[in-house]
Amino acid sequence: MARQKKVLQQTARKLIAFTTPKSYVAEQFRTLRTNITFSSPDSDIRTMVVTSAAPSEGKSTTSANLAVVFAQEGKRVLLVDGDMRKPTTHYTFHMGNTIGLSSILTRQAAAEEAIRPTAVERLDLLTCGPIPPNPAELLASKSMDLLIKQLKEKYDLIIFDAPPVLSVTDGQIIANKCDGTVLVVNSGNTEKEMALKAKEAITASNSKIIGAVLNNYELAKDSHYYQYYGTTE
């Protein structure tokens, strides 16, 4: 019973836009959603990648909550775990990971078999699947291009959770295939030089940055925003 309670608490923290939609943090994800929408006034953002400069900066939590708020807006959303080295979305949504993206790209499963609905209305999930020995090659393949084209016929928005861009090339590869990139920076931990290098890596992949997230920023309790949202859970 204690373990189940702990799991529920962890889920609540990770999917705060779903479990506590009136919270200050959830409101910030909706603000990010609005900013992304306005970042490309001449065309719809259909595919985006969420990445960071280095590990443990919160990009997976950001991608999951961003997917939630876009689904809450009424879009048909697919969250794809493109981190084939340290996948986490199956933990966040409490699903199995026996089949997923890697299974589709290696023709071990069809997309219809691997994609599963979540507890959030209009939000589906495609987990990573078995970790392959050649993630970069799979992500750069023509099969990946065909899969994205196929998925765009069913979904309004596809969000990829990608590995940190300065750790491996995977993030740049996915960014090159998407309409835009959201860069997550951990406040107080990410060095400015690393953040700039991450920005340059994204630009070099021929992707544009459509948003940036400053994660784990401590808001002063006398802040106007804290007073307005902080007491509502």
Keywords:
disordered C terminus; alpha/beta; 12 helices; disordered N terminus; seven-stranded mixed β-sheet
Structural features, described:
With 233 residues, the chain is of the alpha/beta class. It has 12 helices and 7 strands. It has helices at 2-14, 16-19, 24-39, 59-72, 89-92, 101-105, 111-114, 135-139, 142-152, 170-177, 192-204, 224-229, and strands at 47-52, 77-81, 116-117, 123-126, 157-161, 180-186, 209-215. It has a 7-stranded mixed beta sheet with strand order 3-4-2-5-1-6-7, sandwiched between helices. α11 (192-204) links the parallel β6 and β7 (209-215). α3 packs across α4 (59-72). The radius of gyration is 17 Å and the shape is globular.
Summarize the structure.
This protein is of the alpha/beta class and 233 residues long.
Per-chain topology:
Blueprint: H1 2-14, H2 16-19, H3 24-39, E1 47-52, H4 59-72, E2 77-81, H5 89-92, H6 101-105, H7 111-114, E3 116-117, E4 123-126, H8 135-139, H9 142-152, E5 157-161, H10 170-177, E6 180-186, H11 192-204, E7 209-215, H12 224-229
Parallel strand pairs: 1-5, 1-6, 2-4, 2-5, 6-7
Antiparallel strand pairs: 3-4
Low-confidence stretches: 1-12, 221-233
Q: How many distinct helices?
A: 12
Query: What's the count of strands?
Result: 7
Instruction: Supply Rg.
Output: 17 Å
Please give the order of strands in the largest beta sheet. Answer: 3-4-2-5-1-6-7
Structural class: alpha/beta
Can you write the helix and strand succession as a string?
HHHEHEHHHEEHHEHEHEH
**Average pLDDT number:** 85
SS strand fraction: 15-25%
Helix content: 40-55%
User: Sheet bearing the most strands, described?
Assistant: 7 strands, mixed
- Alpha carbon gap, first and last residue: 24 Å
Shape: globular
